[in-house]
Request: fold
Amino acid sequence: MFKVYLFCFVLLFVGCIAKAQLKTPQQTLDSLLWANQNHPKEDSTKVAILKNIYRQYIRLKNTPKVEEYVFRTIVMAQKTNQKSYEAEAFFRLGLYNHSFTNYQKAEEYYLKAIEKYIALKDLDWVAGIYLNLGEMYYRIPDYAKALEVNQKAISIYLKIGNEIDLASCYTNVAGSIKT
Reply:
């Protein structure tokens, strides 16, 4: 019986230690802000730190800071020729605005992300953003635009052979057909 109690005690003790080591979102953000402040070099590490900061602000739903750090990331990505970070930053800002039904801003940033991903020749991302735009236009509702961007996504997914996401496009198109 003593072994059972000892085993339970050890499990509880280990669980408490593990939980104590977990960081809250604010603690994670504070660590990232510290890392940013102490990494003055303009390089790919700085871009990655900035990206993680804006992603943490997204989790905290702090819109002014999300925008501030997304744009800092974009500027640093341009300086260091990290084009994929720039494209992703525009996409994340579009997605963030989309989630808060700020559709005009979401559309603006999605379109900028599409432009950047086209330049990178990353068609999977381009089609995925068209898929997001289709869902957004459906919610507005602007069924003609929803159908248009879903057809663009379908065309790309057929070209690259992405059948799973192609099915999502067909589902979106079927959902946007109104009688």
Q: What stands out?
A: Confidence is low (pLDDT under 50) at residues 4-11, 13-20. Residues 134 and 146 are 4 Å apart (CA to CA).
